[in-house]
Amino acid sequence: MATTTHEMQVGDAAARAPLPDELPDFHGEKMTLNMGPSHPATHGVLRIVLELDGEIITKATPDIGYLHRGDEKIAENMTYTQFIPYTDRLDYLAPLANNVAYALAVEKLLGIDKALPPRCQYIRVICCELARLSAHLLGLGSFAMDVGALTVFLFTFTEREKIYDLIEALTGARFTTSYTRIGGLSRDLPPGWVGRCRQFLEEVVVNIDETEKLLTRNKIFVDRTRDVAVIPREDAIDYGLTGPNLRGSGVDFDLRKAHPYLVYDQLEFDVPVGSVGDCYDRYLVRIEEMRQCVRLLRQCLDKIPGGADNAAQEPINVANGKILLPPKVKVLTSMEELIHQFMLVTEGVNAPPGEVYASTENPKGELGIYIVSKGGGTPYRMKIRSPSFANLSILSHLMPGHMISDTVAIFGSLDFVMGECDR
Amino acid sequence: MTAGELAQQLKTRFGDLISEPTEFRGELTVRLSDADCVAEICQFAKKHLGFDYLVDISSVDNYGDDPRWTVVYHLYGYGHRCSLRLKTEVSEEESELPTVTGVWRTANWHEREVYDMMGITFRDHPDLRRILMWEGYPYFPLRKDFPLAGKPSNVPEVAFSNSAPIEGGPFVTVAGGKNAGAREPRVRVPEPPDPKEPAAPTQETA
């Protein structure tokens, strides 16, 4: 029986193509080690090519783009509202925060970002802080797991599960929330939600304390993180680091304080800042930020206009039929609302020509949305300035000189998300 | 110090190169008429005006207009906490401007992304390779003449030889189309491959 042989080839040329500087050098004593794109410590699909002298890293070349989906291109081809579900998939550990960031950017373009109803603004702050808490819980859990403390991961994931339950009750989905609308929210707080959230906050503070007991004075954890990957203040600024990574290096900067959006200027919270800029400082900053999240959430739940059940019928959406879909009952009974509904669905909200850059303090750092509008319902160009992208650009500068086992500590402490980095 | 004063200082120093600042939604934009000076101006902005943080570099494809490219720099200063947008135009023939990696090191990846997505090159960039797409990818996908569904390529194994199966997907909206079919095309017909490219060797499939 005749047999035939088919030569199989891997279609992914990127996996096989050597970078110019990683071709084997048989005379040197350096070894090249490829980490990723699928590696437990890379938290997604980051590939990094390490050049090693023994156990010391002499050169690191990050290779990103494995999760590139062309979000910016997609945004140019749909209306502003249609793009909201795509923002869930940027930083997929904090989809609610991305929803808010995107909605605020489009609202800034429309000139209504200062005119949002107070209840909407409070709920959005609740969303942002829940997202931050959830993202930091995951970031810390996986960071600790990577450096050998598996228990922490189980502790933090127990709390994250509760956050997901809250998010599911609020938005109808655990993960793909798509909660905001341009000019408002898709729905109000469900009955009993505020009570459940308060109950959760009681539990999470206990959990944060326990997590800290497991790590902050843990000799193994401290040895693996203290004075590892020190980012001096100047380098942090020069490489455009933002968020906890920037604050870990001692820069007292938080967009919620420096340029308050929503109702952050009416809430009390502190911004934790590191002193050395090592992995340990970045860990401490995140732990403290979680406590501040709880503090902010409690204030919001207390101060939210309309209260828990919104008996006073406080609006959560701007009252402008040309921006947000009118109530269904009005669409069916009134001509004007019917026209608004029709125009919004077919053409999208009519944005003025112009360009805006709006940024929010997301769990990973500054998420900026730059929109160039030529008028009409779709952006002409939309650029997403993602914090993980800038935070990762420091890797090739930061990693040389460290041991290969430090890479997982560095990755864990930088706390990046590839969905947002690659867009 | 306000962003307006900082923009005026920039204008005082560089004169006609810098346009009058324009304001929209509280954001100041200045235009730089000669893209070749962008590194010099950024150096001045960082050193003397305190813009120590380069937030972002992005690019806009003004397809059909001349000059075709707009490169946009978002500057911020941690000292004075003001932001400024610096825009400059580059023609399609030139498609090149100086790098600002010497001013802010974060520009390295931002410029690589602009090159990757739009095909604008940065003179003296230390490592101008593709960053999100892979080495050898033949197109610049954020250009306006690149279709959403992707372009088939004749370069074997480097890019998809067919466009995406859903060809743009059901969720595509083209604002202002004459009817529902034009506004929400269920299928986008990709353009035929460029005949100038080398033809792919035909491969036997099992």
Describe what this molecule looks like in 3D.
The complex is a heterodimer of chains A (423) and B (206). Chain A has 18 helices and eight strands. Chain A has 423 residues and is an alpha+beta fold. Chain A has a domain at 71-319: Cytochrome-c3 Hydrogenase, chain B (Orthogonal Bundle). In chain A, helix 4 (95-110) runs antiparallel to helix 5 (118-146), helix 5 (118-146) runs antiparallel to helix 6 and helix 6 (150-171) runs antiparallel to helix 7. The radius of gyration of chain A is 23 Å and the shape is globular. In chain A, 52% of the residues are buried. The model of chain A has no long low-confidence stretch (mean pLDDT 87). With 206 residues, chain B is an alpha/beta fold. Chain B has two domains: 3-123, NADH:ubiquinone oxidoreductase Nqo5 subunit (Beta Polymerase, domain 2), CATH 3.30.460.80; 147-190, no CATH class. Helix content of chain B is 19%, strand content 19%. Chain B has four helices and seven strands; from the N terminus they run αββαββββαβα. Chain B has helices at 3-14, 38-49, 107-118, 180-183; strands spanning 22-24, 27-32, 53-61, 69-76, 83-90, 96-98, 121-123. In chain B, the strands form two sheets. A five-stranded mixed sheet of chain B has the order 1-2-5-4-3. In chain B, helix 1 crosses helix 2 (38-49). Chain B is globular. The termini of chain B are far apart. Mean pLDDT of chain B is 79; it is low at 187-193 and 197-206. The chains are: A alpha+beta (423), B alpha/beta (206). Chains A and B meet through helix 2, strand 6, strand 7, strand 8 and helix 15 of A and strand 3 and helix 3 of B.
Characterize this entry briefly.
The complex is a heterodimer of chains A (423) and B (206). Chain A is α+β, with helices and mostly antiparallel strands and 423 residues long.
